[in-house]
Amino acid sequence: MDTVETTTPRPHQENAAPRPVGESVTRLDAHEKVTGEALFADDLQFGPNMLYARIKRSPHPHARILKIDASQALALPGVKTVVTGQSTPGFIGLYLKDRHIFCTDRARFVGDPVAGVAAVTEEIAERALDLIHVEYEVLPPVLDPEDGVRPDAELLHPELDSYEVANFIFPQPGTNIPNLFKIRKGDVDKALSEAAAVVHHSFRVPHVQHVPIEPHVAIAKVDERGRVTLWGSSQSPFAQRNLIASALGISQADLEVVAPYVGGGFGCKAGVSMEALAVAIAMQVRGRPVKLRLTREEEFYTTFVRQGLVAHFTMACDAEGNLTAMDNKFYWDGGAYAEYGVNMTRGAGYSSSGPYDVPNVRTDSFCVYTNHPVGGPMRGFGQPEMQCGLEQCINRLALEIGMDPMEFRRRNCVKEGSNLVTGMKMHATGIGECIEKAAEAIGWGHKDPPSAPHKRRGKGIAAMWKAPAMSPNAGSSAWIEMSEDGKCTLGLGGQEIGQGTFTVMAQMAAATLGIPYDWVRIASPVDTKYSPYEWQTVASRLTWSMGNAVVAAAKDARRQILELVARSWEETPEDLDIVNGNVISAKSGRSSSLKGLVVYGLAKPGDQGWIGGPILGRGSFMPTYVTGLDPETGQGERAVVHYTTGAQAVEVEVDLETGRVQVLRGASAFDMGKAINPDLVNVQMEGGLVQGISTALFESLQLQDGVVRNPSFVDYRIATSADAPRDMQSIIVEVPQDDGPFGARGVGEHSMVPTMPAIANAIHDALGIHPGAPPFTAEKVYLAMVDAGLVK
Amino acid sequence: MAHHKISVTVNGSVESVDVPSNMTLLTMLREKLGLTGTKNGCTAGECGACTVFLDGEPVNSCLVLAVECDGAEVRTVESLARNGQLDPIQQSVIDHNAVQCGFCTPGVLISARALLDRNPDPSEEEIRDALVGNLCRCTGYVRILDAVKDAARVGAAAGNGGSR
Amino acid sequence: MREAHPGLPDFDYVRPASLEEASRFLAENPQTARPFMGGTDTFVRLRDGFWKETRYLVDVKNLDGRAEITFDPQNGLTVGAAVSMNQVVADPRIRSHYPLLAQAAHRVASYQLRTRATLVGNLCNASPAGDTLGACLLFGGILRVHGVEGYRDQPLGSFFQGPGRTALKPGDIVTSIRFPLPVPGSVGHYEKLGRNVLSDLAIVGVTVLGHPDSSAASGYRFHLALASVGPVPVVLSDLLTQAPLTPEALDEAAERAMEGCHPIDDVRGSARYRKLMVRNLSRRALALVWEGLQSGHRCE
What we know:
The structure holds 3 protein chains of 3 kinds.
Chain A: H1 30-35, E1 51-57, E2 63-69, H2 71-75, E3 79-84, E4 91-92, E5 99-100, E6 106-107, E7 113-119, H3 122-130, E8 133-138, H4 145-148, E9 179-185, H5 188-194, E10 197-205, E11 217-222, E12 228-232, H6 237-248, E13 255-259, H7 275-282, E14 290-293, H8 296-301, E15 308-317, E16 323-335, H9 342-349, E17 360-369, H10 383-400, H11 405-412, H12 431-441, E18 455-466, E19 476-482, E20 488-492, H13 501-513, E21 520-522, E22 526-527, H14 542-569, E23 576-579, E24 582-585, E25 591-593, H15 597-600, E26 602-603, E27 610-611, E28 616-621, E29 644-655, E30 661-671, H16 678-697, E31 703-704, E32 707-708, E33 727-733, H17 755-767, H18 778-787
Parallel strand pairs in A: 1-14, 12-13, 16-17, 20-21, 30-33
Antiparallel strand pairs in A: 1-7, 2-6, 2-8, 3-7, 4-5, 9-17, 10-15, 11-12, 11-14, 13-22, 15-16, 18-29, 19-20, 19-28, 23-24, 24-25, 26-27, 29-30, 31-32
Helix pairs in contact in A: 10-17, 11-12, 13-14, 16-17
Chain B: E1 3-10, E2 13-20, H1 25-32, E3 51-54, E4 57-60, E5 73-75, H2 88-95, H3 105-118, H4 124-131, H5 142-158
Parallel strand pairs in B: 1-5
Antiparallel strand pairs in B: 1-2, 3-4, 3-5
Chain C: E1 12-14, H1 19-28, E2 33-36, H2 42-47, E3 56-59, E4 69-72, E5 76-80, H3 85-90, H4 92-97, H5 99-106, H6 111-116, H7 119-125, H8 133-138, E6 142-147, E7 150-155, E8 160-162, E9 165-166, E10 173-179, E11 187-193, E12 204-212, E13 220-227, E14 234-239, H9 247-259, H10 271-295
Parallel strand pairs in C: 1-3, 2-3
Antiparallel strand pairs in C: 4-5, 5-10, 6-7, 6-10, 8-9, 11-12, 12-13, 13-14
Helix pairs in contact in C: 9-10
């Protein structure tokens, strides 16, 4: 049975992309990954001189650090150094500098790094932790974001107004609110009063974690001059270079970050989480590499987690089912430090209408400090959390007005020219087609009988949108150099985290340059000393942004080659082309292989010298048109670069005897403009759907008094091979991106955004009850059925 | 802590290794023998990234002591390809795009190879059951199931069970 | 808060040459020496910081004849202490005469864990969530124990004393478990509820064994064991012996099972849900076994 459906390009489509763009070529990293040759950070060898680090962490969610006595630890044979916040007084952070590398005067979450040890073995370093004695004064913790915003709440960051902050983030001094993003569009109260139907619901979304199969690992070495090399599993080598150098007061040019393959990121390896700890420790043992690796338990709560959210929605429509108003209040459980999390608050805010045309919107999106693990970027960046409730509310409103939920979405979804929630005009998008096709793929409108008398079936749909959330001037760059036999090496700064970016970049370079796909090599591992700048591997931005830079670099190399050959052949470059690695002239019919000339140039006739030289192509891309938004209204000319839209529809079956929800089938439809490699797009959709199912049905960090009670695979369950639905359809919709390479925009995150609400809506369709907060575990669903009188 | 001199055959090669009592097979492979293909995802027998063959059967090498392997035969992902020729299960994983970040892949390949060695024509249910101890966060699993089914077909056509 | 170490703590690995040597060493070092077989429970606990006083890990799996399964039609089944779960799942004699045992063993964790985990080791670990404890109890398992005073028999019924606590004393090593022949016509079923479809611990586990019994008014006798609802497995014997066997009688037996257990709230599930699942899953398991008894098929 086919599990995959792709749309073929429409025959009349202009500029059908040159091969191998649009082809499902084999991943160029697949071979080394199946042989075990592919190197990840913990596989790198550093010799017998290497030390191991372990971190002493706060056991309290909130405490002042009174005294640290490391003398016993330092006396343990094999221990080389102990580092505390005294050595790291500088602030660090991406959008808001609100944390130190090691805690200085206080700890703000269970797991906050208080001290670090380097020793000759990992065991000795671990033993040394027990010999570091820390005196704490326990302070009252803030454990809920709605408590954190109360006027009498304990202040977790009294110095908030002194923190360096990006100009699009709005901290509220004297509070626990490091960002408040507002939307004031139209007249919400008037629209609510005139509405034919109004629904109001609140949703609570728990913290979850990314659970990359490869835990975080970083190795740092500082030479005698103080120059740093940092190796690590990283989505953001350049951002790490920048942030760590700034925090330590050294030049970015003196901090080199080397980033091999990443064994899963999903956002937790973006920005800086634990890497700076390794550098700070290595500074005290010059000349020796220091390796810090997290245990799986630490992975669950000491780096980044996805923020929890308390969301209150009010939505209204008119009698015809047109959305007229939305009134939203979001309280984000930002955790102890919001240096990254502040931007999720904003991203949710400027997307808070959902992918719908709504003339009147009021949103208050509060990022709130709590004494919980640090909220950071996770696949979807605020959208899964927010749209979990938003899309369930849309469903309720549709049913309230008596309209089919799919029809309601199709009617109200944004179109080209729509006036968006921030006042931006929507670009061309295929969301309507996505909604229709996802629904059709699971047989929307038909109900199949359940597989057994004690089961119930239901279908649910959710639409979504998401823009790359980043600095307005996040840039990409690329270089291309050629080897003697005509093949090329592509230099880039974006990371292969499994999404296939190395492969699609090679495809785009090959297509633009005119050489076969397997002639392209990637200059990996990414190394900030040699690789060109890339802002971060996040936001589903690489295909679009880095792709533009790669295409520009390939065009530059191509131009140099054609100009050289044209000079040699006394023709014009416009008559020349490169096809399959050969320069050919449409005018004269001449042809020449690229071999040799791309390095050595071409000889002049009669051995009278040479022309040309080593071909080196370069390109860069940075969006220049994103504008600021008014801090009071959230309105502005251009809030984001673009939106990728889509929808997911699922069919579930609920076991009335246990409450277990099984996803029988799912269909994902997304508009990514142009699928550079269609099957790689399909596997993003499949993988995202399963990660979405996993978070919907199984996952939550069970926080109690600031402590994560289930930081291990035993009690933090994720989907296994037995939980994945066999029937997963992936539908590609292509409405070109005006400034994307070959019309492409990103899709990596999007496939896990609509999953939770699609499943919630399907459960409601099956049972007539709402399943409450995710995860929709068997227990939760069963007890909800009992409480509703459906079962005993 | 006691140390032990052990002799263990790894990927066909007899190795003499000096190991402390508390060293796991996983650590011995990665840090004493430089075989970094096998990965550590949890050190608790839950994720399966450390799966290797021990005397012909797949085990979580993070839960086996190196010293317990004295006289035993260990095979890792590095043993699957022979003279540049990929094992059918490796080729099938490539062909089905059943690898993304690649971190779970070595463990998956061992579990899959073990399944096909003992059951050359497994049903989908049997494949899911055999792989349930290998967690993957990227692929959504279905491509892996398809890859195993396909490798079974290839193995049957070639007339061998693949086991060595 | 659990603080797991990156690796295993320090200890000396000890491999005694004989059972006598092993029992003696363990008895002489009651606080600091710990026996282990597959290691799948032991290493996890050590890494999590339990049993900090352990200085010696004593490998007892390679002692005489302990990786063997023997069966004879007169005396029944003997499973050596080092027999792995996978061996139990695959053995044709077990599949033929004690299929419930194979079924329960198959539900343990994952294939690679089952290569190392042993049936006996799992019993000695005495986790109330153990998948195979119920089947072993209902088949009337008897442990063969070697201690400093020689061999003795330990029936499973009085073996479990609490989570992780058994009747074993320092120096005791279980060498095998034996099961008498099941009553002819026995049918069994293990119903496991995990959070995932497979591979999880039992949040609730229900093992049922039923057989024809002419001395019972109903003509049948059922026994039931519950996992994860108390500090030790909960056994309910001699169910459904009154006439007649009807759906209502099954309902009532399931209610009795629910009332007979006192689960707790923990990070895996609430007491309220567990009790309701004991009722529902007992109902399911009893019905399946009854169906099997009527049709003469030994269900899985």
